[in-house]
Amino acid sequence: MISIVKFISWALLISAVSSKRVNLFIRPLDGTESNPIGYIENELVYLMETDLQKEYGYCIGTKDIHHHDCFSYHTNLANLSHAVFHLFLDGDGDVERLSLSFDDKLNEPKVVKHKILVAPGPNLTPASINKPREEQKNGGGGEGIEVPVDNRSWIQKNWMYVVPPLIIFMFAGGGGGGAATAEQGS
């Protein structure tokens, strides 16, 4: 008896998970009450007859898809008989996004499925960057270009940066010792 109950509970759970049903509701913009208008299941739309007033704006939404509480806003809407529901499916076939448009040529609502394609990302490791790094790892930097080694001391290399400030300091008076000796002599 327990195994039958477990089987039935598993069957209900699996059927609930595998069902791709999206419940729809409509809400006037100035109101807070949402009224169910139907659902989308697989490739069919089941809508209830709803009395819509053209002078009001309506928000159509669902709670079955994250961030789709109001996926479509419309004004001057008499009914939903010309509605085209666009379902955007991910790789697993689950509804990722939902949108609504209208086609005056239709007499009943329609579902159009679109696959979401992931755009290619940037190549973060291009070959032009990797080749110089591989050459550096292998020990070869440049082949055939010899750079002479400079064996001079630091003063010999940087004298032009030291001597001009030293000359300016000496002309500016530098120590103050010259004025003191001149007074002693008189």
TrEMBL record:
Q: Alphabetically list the UniProt keywords.
A: Signal
Leader sequence segment: 1-19
Q: Which domain of life is it from?
A: Eukaryota
Where in this protein does the record put region Disordered?
A: 123-147
Q: Tell me the protein's name.
A: ER membrane protein complex subunit 10
| Species of provenance | Candida theae
